[in-house]
Amino acid sequence: MSRKLLIILGPTAVGKSDYAVEQALKYGSPVISCDSRQIYREMRIGTAVPSAEQLRAVRHYFIQTHSVKETYTAGKYEVEALRLIRDLFEQGHETLVMAGGSGFYIDALCNGLDEFPDADPGIRASLTLRLRSEGVEGLREELKRLDPQSYATIDISNGQRVVRALEVCLMTGRPFSSFKTAPAKQRDFEIEKIGLTRPRDVLYERIDRRVDAMIEEGLVEEARSLLPLRHLPALQTVGYRELFKWFDYLEGREDEGFSKVPGVMFVTPSEWKDGPVTSLERAAQLIRRNTRHYAKRQLSWWRRDRSIRWIETK
């Protein structure tokens, strides 16, 4: 197969953007982003979109192309990215470069999404009410009992993901993971995956430096501008949640663990156990810690994929 998609993946702050630009220049390719947050135009600093220099070096797709006010899913990404990839191949490209850290989006692009049952409004409403009153911790313990495989692979800090998995379990009497057994869809191009790694201490140091740089660049102001939209799913994201909690403290609302929108939490109960965020430095400390946790979850997701060729970057 002469047409190839080269996917550069790895944990946050490992250096995917630099490596992807290097490979894109080598192959005369654009960079196709596969990141579920960099796609939003309102979230520039907190999602670490490629720098102006990187964007000038090669053309990028799916960077700040949608609004957080729009509903965007892995299914939509699969359709739009496949259309773009086929168009680019038709234009004469033989190797295309994709880069991102969103495992679910990469899986959707490579293998297609399985057919899941339609939502049950009654069960979802009940679980959403529980999410609001109990927090995600109680729901994920139930998921662990009903479907340990899903518990081990999905982002269990994401209340919406946990609700959806539990909804399917309760509605069908089958584990959510049992629906993920359909054969992978065949793509008409070769897929090669390169995973970037660094020693843990080096990666964590890079994460810390990135968080400091984001704050210096204006992350606080960016988060403040998004306060009216904080209930949206896209903003249940590390880097924004912690600053929203600090804003709550400044406004005397630090004991409010839930949003005013039914079923939506700003932070997980475990994060509220950290106590009020009384300063910007405390918010930054939590962003560093939670970003490290996110990086560990990303690596756990990809450990199951034996097709990835791992490279330790310098």
Q: How would you characterize the overall build of this protein?
A:
This protein is α/β, with parallel strands linked by helices and 314 residues long. It folds into 3 domains: 4-114 and 187-198 and 299-312, P-loop containing nucleotide triphosphate hydrolases (Rossmann fold, 3-Layer(aba) Sandwich); 121-179, Histone, subunit A; 201-296, Crystal structure of tRNA isopentenylpyrophosphate transferase (bh2366) domain (Helix Hairpins, Orthogonal Bundle). The chain is built from 13 helices and 6 strands. A 6-stranded parallel sheet has the order 3-2-4-1-5-6, sandwiched between helices. The longest helix has 23 residues, at 280-302. The two termini are 32 Å apart. The relative contact order is 0.16.
Question: What is the helix content?
Answer: 40-55%
Q: Count the E strands.
A: 6
Low-confidence stretches: 256-267
Give the number of helices. Answer: 13
Please trace the helix and strand order, writing H or E for each element: EHEHEHEHHHHHEHHHHHE
